[in-house]
């Protein structure tokens, strides 16, 4: 995993690299499969007081549970992404950065394509399919 995240194409300093990092972090931390990624919405990511995230999963029929998957009665299943050990790298750092770069009027889907606004600034605006 370290070698993957150290690859230049996976830099969180570029929009494409950040998108790839977040996609990989979410996949590794939540065991999402195939179309499950497309069901994730930005509002499903809830930051906790400790700096980690709870991710609400609406449809999760194949997940068998485990330490980082917390089902509670009368609530939808929640995946736990623990806080980063470092303040400058890790899953939570990348997810926060990605969420902060999302335009306020963006689609509700979590994963968006990288695009440019009329001034040439790189932003995330289109749904990834």
Structure notes:
By secondary structure, this protein is α+β, with helices and mostly antiparallel strands. It has one domain (about 1-100). The protein has three helices and six strands; from the N terminus they run H-H-E-E-E-E-H-E-E. The chain has helices at about 1-5, 15-30, 90-100; strands spanning about 45, 55, 70, 80, 110-115, 120-125. A four-stranded antiparallel β-sheet has the order 1-2-4-3, with no helix packed on it. The chain has a two-stranded antiparallel sheet with strand order 5-6. Helix 2 (about 15-30) packs across helix 3 (about 90-100).
Annotation keywords:
129 residues, alpha+beta, 4-stranded antiparallel sheet, two-stranded antiparallel ribbon, 3 helices, 6 strands, 25% helix
Topology:
Elements: H1 2-6, H2 15-30, E1 45-47, E2 53-56, E3 69-70, E4 78-81, H3 91-101, E5 112-116, E6 122-127
Antiparallel strand pairs: 1-2, 2-4, 3-4, 5-6
Helix pairs in contact: 2-3
Main β sheet profile = 4 strands, antiparallel
Q: What is the overall silhouette?
A: globular
Tally of individual domains:
1
- As residue ranges, the low-confidence spans are none
What is the distance, rounded to the nearest whole angstrom, between the alpha carbons of the first and last residues? 25 Å
Structure class: alpha+beta
| Strand arrangement in the largest pleated sheet | 1-2-4-3
| Beta strand count | 6
Radius of gyration: 15 Å
Instruction: Give the strand content.
Output: 15-25%
Tally of alpha and pi helices:
3
